[in-house]
Structures are given as C-alpha cells and as structure tokens.
Amino acid sequence: MKWIQKYTGFLRNLRAVHGLYNLFHRKGLRHNKHLYPYYGIQRSVYRSISASFFAGKGAKKPWLDNFTGTRDIENHPLFSHFPDAVEQQLLQWNRQGYLIWENFLDAETVDAINQDIEDLMGKNAVDFNYTGRKIFNTYRQSAVVRKVIKEKRLLELLSFILDKPVVPFQTIHFLKGSEQQPHSDAIHMSTFPQGYMIAAWFALEDIGPEQGPLSYFPGSQQLPYLTNADYDNDSNCWRVDGEANAKYEQKIAQLLAENNFPKMTFTAKKGDLLIWHGNLIHGGEPMLRREATRKSMVAHYYAKDVICYHEISERPAIFDTDLIGEIDNGFYKGDSDILDIPKF
After folding, report:
1. Do residues 51 and 193 lie in contact, with contact meaning Cβ atoms separated by under 8 Å?
2. Does domain 2-328 have CATH number 2.60.120.620?
3. What is the H or E stretch that residue 135 is in?
4. Which residues are 134's β-sheet partners?
5. 246-274, pLDDT tens digit by residue?
6. What is the DSSP secondary-structure string of 18-71?
7. In 3D, which of 177, 199, 173 has the Cα closest to residue 186?
8. Nearest C-alpha neighbor of 266 from the set 223, 302, 296, 299
9. Phi/psi of residue 158, each to 5°?
10. Domain ranges, ordered by start, for the chain
C-alpha cells in the first residue's frame, strides 16, 4: 500500500483504476450502499461520485450550522459535559467555525505517541506519502494513537457538534510544518448532506511562529461549499484532472482576497486540541527555521449515515470497518474504557 501513497503518475487519475481499487476495498464502501437509494442515487458504490449527482436534492445541515439560540444549545443533554471554556466556544461555533480545548492530552500520552511514531519510522513500518510531509493512518500500527482518536470526551464533543455519532476516517501525522496552501477539507472529504465531516488537530509539542504553525480563517466555514464545478476543473469521463488541487487552491486564494476574514495562527502548547468545521479554510504557515519540527496529528471524522466521498477526485470514501466496529461495539479492544456515544 505504501507505493500507492507515494505514486504521483498518470495512473493516479484514471477512473478505471479508481474503480478497480474500489472493488478491491469493497468492504469499506458498505456505508454508502443503503444511502444511495435513500437519496435517489442510481449508481454503483464502486463508481465515481461527485456533487453533481446531488444537484437539486435538499437535505438538512448540522444543527449548529443553522441559527441556533443560546438556550437551545445550553439545554442539550451533553452541553454540561464539557469544560466551561469549551462550552463558551460551542456557543460561538456558528460564527467562528472552530474551538480550542487546551491541555486535552497529557504529556505522558503525547510522549507515547511521539515515541511510537519514531519507532515505526525507524522500522520502516510507516512512511511519508508523496508530499514528503504527511504520514497517513498510524492508528493501524500505534495502539496509543488508536486509543486517542476514539477517546470518549472527543467523540462526545464531535457528536454534539454534528448532532450525529461520528466515526474516525483517517489520521495524518506531521513531523514538520505542512506549509500547505489555504484550503477547506470539504473538497477532499465531502458529504451529502453537506457539513458532516469534522477535524481534530493535536499539538504533539509546543509550536511557535518559526515552526510553520497552523493558520485558519474564522467565519470562512460560512462560505458556500465549493465543488468541482466552481473552478477550472478539467476532469472528463475517463480521468480526473491531475491539476485540480492547484486550481482549487487558486480559487480559495481568490475567495480570501474578496472577503475580509481574519487570519489566526495557532501557536499551540503540547497537548492542545483544535477542532475545526469541515468547511473552515486553513493551511500551514511557512517554516522560518527549516530544521525545526512541528510534531502534530490531525484526525478526520465523518458522521454516520451520510454519503461520504472525495469531491476533488470524485471517489467514494473507503472506511476502516474494523475501526468503526470497535466504536459500534462500545469499547476499545483490550481496554476497559466504555464508550458512551449518544444516538441523537
């Protein structure tokens, strides 16, 4: 599987290759099978899918994306479960599109994660993808990463925001700053109905301005969701546009120039957690010290019972069914912690 992550050639963009890959991973596409007919999608779950197939289909967005009164939020049965600082930020979620939970992970847990990644890299058990910056899905080899992304407090918070149970989709580790151009995750990890993807970013060391910290634009999640029809995408019936990402980032740069969103930089402390809305524009600042590390991990989550796909590549999202099964069973394998995820 490592060569697939590193490969950047012609085959990467062929729809026929995507279809074969989907067939090989058909178990991970079961989540869409009962949802396609529910939403009137007459299409195999193994074929390409994009926002064009949902044109004209109305659906309800997450409750906090709509105008929700303070009293309605405070009266939710889970609201009192969170720290006071998190509660106050939840009341601003519709306006800001992010929240910060300071010291979410203790130093011991963070150190265990960093040691696991170092050991796995040393054994060549994990590696960077074609970007040279991202290490995908270390939860498959690291028990501590797997436990963190299923942590009860985190799942309760994400489920509260989306008003649906959530399941982890992937993790990405960074040893240095991503220096990625501003973007929204919604073009890469898309849902129908829109808005049912959310991200959790963990600082695995103290991160200052010289290390290429994360930056984000509060309020930008209120922009319309971009689709492949909203920028110069040259995909056709047999291949997807290999330059789509660069063209999409140019469109985001244009939107930021046209709007007056403030830019925030997250100079985090070790163990801090940043949650952001799936449509919040964010990126990585330049590294001012090239030798500096910026150890961090992001986990992306989909809500259950929504159609999940990747708009930019027009592929259905492939889930880790074993990971979902662990959450559905209500416990960590080999661990006595009980998950109590509400069924809204």
Report:
1. no
2. yes
3. strand 134-136
4. 174
5. 999 999 999 999 999 999 999 999 999 99
6. HHHHHHHTGGGGHHHHTHHHHTT--S-TTS---GGGGTT---PPPGGGS---HH
7. 199
8. 296
9. -65, -40
10. 2-328
